[in-house]
Design a protein that fits this description.
This protein is an alpha+beta fold. Helices cover 31% and strands 19% of the residues.
């Protein structure tokens, strides 16, 4: 500004621009930090132009609540080091960080605070040179800035450490596929749990009037039913569990502690009640000024290892070992005992493998489990970290699983290892396999005489190997199920005298055989009643005496072999019982109830994956069966069910 004087022109002090006036007022009244102002005013240099001499005891920024401060930044790295210690340390070369890490969660109240300050800046500054960012843009830029800072701090920490254990790193990480087994970490910024942060009344009206907030709040606490047996179930997410554990959100009574989501807060501040009403902006600004003395934000960190997969084939040499822990409802008539779950069998394949696999992977973390009010360790029934056992099909509790005629015909399985403390080397896996098989390192794994792996007589389980598998192998377990050929050996009984010629005529010469199987009575309570088309590819009977014989079968996947032998009250057509009935009645089919067959012992002798080819129907020589084909229906009439059960009871008697 130039002013004329007697001796010429003199230069007076320039008046500050409206933008600088707005920034200075925001700094004085709200204590907004320079970083927040730089994000809210991205296209102007007014922040640096505005003179600001911060006091020694600078209060917490009213917008970011200290999230962008250096104190929390150093606290994040400190917590990361502590969280990574059980996994071998943040600088361990075996802990490769996932490409998506870090992930950051910010409180949605940052949106509201940024919205209020941005409106004040727009009101105070009338200059067109001032461009104020909206609240959602501020929120996203703060999140990106924090991610970049945390990532830089971690990288600098890596560079400060020595490059040790490179050979072990190469041995461990070489079998890992597509970042499987890598480390992830999440940073949660939140308000202090003991502080009372009230939401403005005008904002509450906008929040609970929007459609997104009219959902049932119980939905956040609804849990998927995972069975009522006492085994551990895997579920949850480390990020969600960290928020629930930190904020104390355990059950429906804690619904008031659930923070407002970013989507709901964005919809509320964009609503007409807030975006276009100046009096509403003034009320919000006064509320913001009253929160200047509130404590700064806090930070919490969690770290976990992503899933990786270990697999092989297994055999089972005990008729008291199920594939997974097997529980059934107690049928006791004593009051209070009927609803309890009773375990069948003394052990399971999953438990026999996991008890040796657990030490090989360094143990499973419990730090990322969701806790309950009375449990601070996270050892509930639903956990995040677990060794999940998956197999290609399953055999019954009383059925042996063999590998005949070669060692690669056992049942394929994959162990999905979730949140283990370390990645095992191949030597660790070999040692675990020897422990499962009760063998030494140089012992022969497979026995040609028995068809079993190892010599684990007590546990009854053996494996041919434990190796790293890609994630696709887990999906292939189920995809290959429909293309398998299974080989069985069974010991059978006939109520009527038989001859070797009868067995050869009615069983040996009828394969391949097309059968129709309705859902067996023994599993009808838990599976839909449908008719399944299956193939018996090969049958070889062996005569023992006039009442006893053995069968060697090759079938398509999903065939109920027990029901194929005894007919399941006419629900499997044809069956061994119906075929022998035709032979013993000279093909007339008369006196059907006079011949009863049953199976007393069943062994699965091997599995061929991906080799099944559906036989040509023209080559199948099924003869007329005296038993009617079961009708395809999804419901079983109650009267038919009762009569079926009564017939079954008579047969068992």
């Amino acid at each position: 500004i130039m002013e004329e004087a007697e001796d010429g022109f003199i230069e007076l002090e320039a008046s500050p621009s409206p933008g600088i006036v707005a920034i200075q007022k925001i700094r004085e009244e709200c204590h907004v930090c320079n970083e927040c102002l730089s994000i809210l005013l991205p296209k102007t240099s007014l922040v640096s132009d505005a003179d600001y001499d911060p006091p020694n005891d600078t209060p917490t920024c009213i917008v970011c609540t200290g999230i962008l401060g250096s104190t929390l930044q150093s606290n994040v790295l400190t917590q990361l080091k502590d969280k990574f210690k059980p996994y071998g340390g943040l600088t361990s070369k075996t802990n490769v960080l996932h490409s998506d890490s870090p992930t950051v969660s910010l409180p949605s109240m940052l949106l509201l605070r940024a919205f209020i300050v941005s409106r004040v800046l727009q009101k105070l500054s009338t200059s067109e040179e001032v461009v104020v960012a909206d609240a959602l843009t501020y929120y996203n830029r703060v999140k990106d800035l924090l991610k970049s800072r945390i990532d830089n701090d971690v990288n600098e920490h890596y560079e400060e450490c020595s490059d040790s254990d490179e050979e072990e790193c190469e041995e461990t990480m070489s079998p890992i596929y597509e970042e499987e087994g890598s480390m992830c970490y999440h940073v949660l910024y939140h308000a202090p749990t003991d502080a009372t942060h009230t939401i403005p009344t005008i904002l509450q009206n906008c929040l609970y009037s929007s459609k997104s907030n009219q959902r049932n709040p119980k939905a956040q606490f609804r849990q998927r039913f995972r069975g009522n047996d006492p085994t551990l179930k895997q579920g949850g997410c480390p990020r969600a569990n960290l928020e629930a554990n930190t904020l104390g959100i355990f059950e429906y009574s804690d619904v008031e502690k659930v923070p407002v989501s970013v989507a709901d807060m964005t919809a509320a501040i964009d609503s007409p009640q807030l975006s276009s009403r100046s009096e509403a902006h003034e009320d919000l600004y006064q509320w913001l000024l009253h929160t200047k003395d509130h404590p700064a934000a806090c930070v919490a960190v969690c770290a976990w290892r992503t899933h990786y997969y270990l697999g092989g084939n297994y055999t089972k040499s005990s008729r008291e070992v199920s594939q997974t822990p097997f529980y059934v409802p107690n049928d006791s008539k004593v009051a209070g005992e009927r609803n309890k779950m009773v375990r069948k069998g003394r052990s399971s394949v999953m438990e026999e493998i996991n008890q040796h696999l657990g030490p090989a992977v360094g143990g499973i973390s419990t730090a990322n489990n969701k806790r309950t009010p009375n449990d601070t360790t996270g050892s509930g029934s639903v956990v995040y970290g677990l060794c999940k056992f998956h197999a290609s099909g399953r055999e019954d509790l009383d059925v042996l699983m063999k590998s005949i005629p070669s060692p690669d015909h056992g049942r394929p399985f994959v162990c999905e290892v979730i949140d283990s403390y370390r990645l095992p080397t191949q030597s660790d896996l070999d040692h675990a396999a020897c422990g499962i098989n009760s063998l030494k390192a140089d012992d022969e794994i497979w026995s040609r005489e028995t068809g079993f792996y190892g010599r684990n007589v007590e546990g009854g389980v053996g494996v041919n190997e434990l190796v790293y598998r890609p994630k696709a192998s887990f999906g292939n377990l189920q995809a290959d199920t429909e293309h398998k050929v299974k080989h069985y050996g069974c010991r059978c009984y006939s109520s009527q005298p038989l001859t070797p010629a009868t067995l050869d005529q009615r069983l040996l010469r009828t394969s391949p055989l097309l059968i129709h199987q309705s859902t067996p009575v023994r599993v009808l309570h838990r599976r839909s009643n449908i008719v399944r088309k299956r193939y018996v590819l090969h049958v070889t009977p062996t005569f023992i005496d006039e009442h006893w014989f053995t069968l060697r079968l090759s079938t398509s996947a999903g065939t109920y072999v027990k029901e194929f032998v005894h007919g399941d009250l006419g629900r499997t057509v044809p069956s061994v019982q119906s075929l022998l009935t035709l032979a013993l009645t000279d093909g007339t089919g008369l006196n059907l109830n006079g011949v009863k067959t049953d199976i007393v012992q069943l062994d699965c002798e091997g599995i061929d994956c991906g080799v099944f080819v559906e036989p040509d129907l023209n080559d199948i020589t099924n003869e007329a069966s005296p038993e009617p084909v079961a009708k395809e229906t999804n419901e079983l009439d109650e009267q038919d069910t009762l009569s079926t059960v009564s017939k079954k009871q008579k047969i068992d008697t």
